[in-house]
Amino acid sequence: MFTIRFELSLRQDSLEYQSKANKIFQKLLNLKKIISSLALFSVNESLEELNTNYIKFLSVDYYLALLASKKFDKDNPQAFTLKVNSLKLSKYLYLQFLKTLDNYSILNKDLLQKLKAFQSTENDESSDDNNDSEFKNTIFTNTNPMSRREEKIKFFKYENSINDQLKYYENKYKNLNENDIDEEILRELHLTRINLLVVKAFKDLENIQMELQLLSNRSIPAPKIQSVGKENTNQTKDQKYASKDNKSNILSEENNYGYTENLETLNKSILSKEGKVLRPFTLYSKKDQLRKKVFGTGQELPTMSIEEYLDEEMKRGGIVKQSITGNESDSESDDEEKDNYDEVGVYKKREWDDFTDTHKKGSGNTMNMG
User: Fold this and answer.
1) Domain range spanning residue 168?
2) What angle do CA 9, 13, 16 make, to 5 degrees?
3) Is 188 a member of any domain?
4) Which of 5-19, 53-67, 171-185, 350-364 is least confident?
5) Concatenated DSSP letters for 95-160?
6) CATH of the domain at 152
7) How far apart are CA 74 and CA 51, in angstroms?
8) Quick check: 138 and 121 in contact, CB under 8 A?
9) pLDDT tens-place string over residues 53-97
10) To 10 degrees, what angle do helices 79-103 and 183-217 make?
11) Which of 20, 30, 190, 335 gets the highest tally of CB atoms within 10 A of its CB?
12) pLDDT digit string (tens) for 177-200?
């Protein structure tokens, strides 16, 4: 089975890296055309019917998708658009790779569920016209954080098991003699490598989805404004003013981003050492503010009386004027009866005080003892 190796010492945006990637991409495209012309794969056949030597060619779409995701031309003025298109092409090729494997029932139950979830969200995004929709992680189907964590752990364990199987079959294949090659071991080796590429394909699809979401939120780069050269000193004043007006119009048309092109210095001094005015200023701006603070009412003094405030609140509906009801009239009559009762008690106390003044203690009935 063929594999593609990238030189890690090269930068992905370098010309040498992109040139090598494009050459490999074209060779794989030619290989894909040959495979389709020979009809090596068919929807009507099963995995058992597939020739062992043909299994390795199932990975062509994977490597095409991998190379498409790495395309980048920083010197191209349309680099932003080209990057988005290359990522979409890569996503399409990854899906084509997984669908082909699904036709041969190579994907297990969990991976097939992930693929169907991804395809359903792809259909929703294609029918939705809003490009700023919230990013949906289509690789891990669960939205619950705990379930999603368990799903990631399960996916990680599955990847480790595939790597262990691959090491086992590679060591077993190396120990075989060239004249005594077991076709069953070779077949299992090819299928194990394909399963490992499936895991990588799902990871790459997740990264592509995230990158496309970031690029969709990114604003289009602003066009560069050409610098205006020095004016000719031989121009007249009218010509200078006319040229300045034309330049300002050009700048306003090209730069409509809500900011000024003039560079200003903060805290610039008003006068130069020679006494020349360097910037416009106002003499009495702070003076008026200080005067208002001195002669103003301040924060402690009220601006209206309590009665005025209550009247204003009643006009605005903040206070509801209560009407006198029957219960309130009854309470007022009870208060009047209490007042009358209190007056009778006062008179009785006064009479008792007068009685004690005129009659000494013990001068009453002595029970025939005095």
Assistant:
1) 15-217
2) 60
3) yes
4) 5-19
5) HHHHHHHHHTT-S-HHHHHHHHHHHHHHHHHHH---TTPPP---SS---SHHHHHHHHHHHHHHHH
6) 1.25.40.540
7) 43
8) yes
9) 999 999 999 999 999 999 888 888 888 888 999 999 999 999 999
10) 150
11) 190
12) 777 778 888 999 999 999 999 999
Token pair of 177, please?
């003699």
Residue 235: predicted pLDDT: 52
- How far apart (Å, rounded) are the C-alpha atoms in residues 42 and 241? 76
Distance CA 16, CA 18 (A): 6
Is residue 177, in this structure, part of any structural domain at all? Answer: yes
Q: Is residue 260 part of a domain?
A: no
User: Where residue 225 falls among pLDDT bands split at 50, 70, 90?
Assistant: very low
Cα separation of 341 and 333, whole Å? Answer: 13
In the prediction, which pLDDT does 311 show?
86
- Eight-class DSSP state of 305: -
Length of the chain: 370
Phi-psi region of 261 (alpha: psi -120 to 50; beta: other; left: phi over 0): alpha
Q: What tokens were used for 269? A: 């001094």
Q: Which two tokens mark 261?
A: 């092109």
Please answer whether residues 46 and 104 qualify as being in contact, where contact means their C-beta atoms are separated by less than 8 angstroms.
Answer: yes
Long-range CB pairs of 352-360 (<8 Å, 24+ gap) are: none
Quote the pTM value: 0.56
Domain count, the chain: 1
Alpha helices in the chain (DSSP H): 15-38, 60-69, 79-103, 109-127, 145-174, 183-217, 237-254, 285-295, 306-316, 326-358
What are the φ and ψ backbone dihedral angles of 271, each rounded to 5 degrees?
-115, 145
Residue 299 domain-assigned (yes or no): no
277 φ/ψ angles, rounded to the nearest 5 degrees: -75, 125
Pairwise CA distance, residues 27 & 34, whole Å: 11
CA distances from 325 to 139, 317, 329, 332, 334 (A): 71, 21, 7, 11, 15
pLDDT tens by residue, 305-335:
888 888 888 888 777 666 555 555 566 666 6
